[in-house]
Amino acid sequence: LAKTTQPISMDSYEGQEVNITCSHNNIATNDYITWYQQFPSQGPRFIIQGYKTKVTNEVASLFIPADRKSSTLSLPRVSLSDTAVYYCSYNNNDMRFGAGTRLTVKP
Amino acid sequence: DSGVTQTPKHLITATGQRVTLRCSPRSGDLSVYWYQQSLDQGLQFLIQYYNGEERAKGNILERFSAQQFPDLHSELNLSSLELGDSALYFCASSGTGATQTEKLFFGSGTQLSVL
Fold first, then answer.
1. What is the distance in angstroms between the Cα of B6 and the nearest Cα belonging to chain A?
2. How distant is the Cα of B103 from the closest Cα of chain A, in angstroms?
3. B9 CB neighbour count, 10 Å cutoff
4. What are the φ/ψ torsions at residue B83 (nearest 5 degrees)?
5. Neighbour tally for A56: CB within 10 Å
6. I need a labelling partner for A79 at 20 to 30 A (CA). Which of B22, B28, B92, B96 fits?
7. B3-55: per-residue pLDDT in tens?
């Protein structure tokens, strides 16, 4: 069974806000939710991490509802350089990633 | 630069051969993870080591093996290679791999081409 579920792909335009939602029904009480970004032929890199409610950094925001069974990565005012695959993951002993969401930002 | 070093960057070999991929984790990190990514596919978790001991095992084939040495670098050995083993192999490291706030830092990968 997939550990996390995300949309396979999303399209957006420059300057728009993009929200990518991830389902993680089996998350445990102590697990944190982490999102990664991957450009072609590069290793994924950390974007943001959170436990509940809202977390914001210079790159993105992460919204986590009270039941923590899903999370939404929000990218404000995307640019062409945000075109990448985005993975959500939650930390436990099984460091598996889902299929990720391929975001394409168009001019 | 994530601080994780993988060598070689590219590797071309033939079917039936054996290769070794090397990973040096970030300074101070005790956990090393190996992932396989085939063309346009997601990241497939292979195996995790913590301070020299195997901690978690994913979809790693019996033809593949790994180890983490006392200096914490890790090697992934792939043997009896098949065409389908062609992929990007990533190594990642983290502090301990045990805390809930652990973040993975990935290397730039080794592109393996089996001809």
1. 11
2. 7
3. 10
4. -55, -40
5. 13
6. B92
7. 999 999 999 999 999 999 999 999 999 999 999 999 877 889 999 999 999 98
